Amino acid sequence: MDSASGSGIRLLSGGGPQTRLGRVVVAGEVLDDVPTVDAPLRVMDAYVLSVVLEGRGCYRHEDGRERPIGPGSCTVIRPGVAHWYGTDRGERWTEFFVVFTGPIFDLYAERGILDRDGPRQPDPPPSVPVLRAALAATPHSTLAAEHQLLTLADWLLDALRPEGQAGPDPQIMRAADRLAADLRASLDLHTLACELGWSYDMFRRRFKSELGVPPGAYRNAARLQAAAALVRHTDLTLRRIARILGYSDEFHLSRRFSRHFGAPPDRYRHDS
User: Fold this and answer.
1) Domains of the chain
2) Which of 5, 38, 74, 160 has the lowest tally of Cβ within 10 angstroms?
3) Has this prediction a pTM greater than 0.85?
């Protein structure tokens, strides 16, 4: 695990069931704290993903090379690779991390998708809030655990995109990140467009051109995906989930949920 002690360390989930696709061993975050990784090098028997959100440090590989790490850095290490990463002594950072195993990720390594270990700087970076929401609870069934692993695999596919390969407009992706994190729909879309220096109509057209859906629909889908994760992975009542996500009541959420997923939340929970 990436962090062993400290007041700013929080585990989000762990100990999920072994599945045909693999297993999320643990997911967590370091919040403005000192990361702790065995020195001088450590070897894990699982894959490690670390995404630094604030702060700076470095990565050291078994072959002696060093790479800087900063905000947006996505570090992936394969099992059996000796490595170290962290901040300078006394420095802090904020980091989201996942430790995971499975044949779906072995296939990434075999087919060259995961062709090297260490930090990358995907531009634009895939959404950490979306991945965090998907992994924020220990799944209660094998099928739910496989949904988590597929979300992680899809996220990594974007993060491991070859450098130089064209991606969406960085401004649009930053806006998409903010909308994906705005799970209570408190951010005014016209205000967001103004912050980008665009009219709302221009923002809406460019957003839909890049991502295939208008910004409001993108945020609605992210909220419903978060609702699905809470339905699948927790015992929270639908009323409580509606309150967490800013819906007026559980009936409003249930109607939206049923239209989006083709099944009401109670059936979705049972089937998962």
Assistant:
1) 9-159 (2.60.120.280), 170-271 (1.10.10.60)
2) 5
3) no
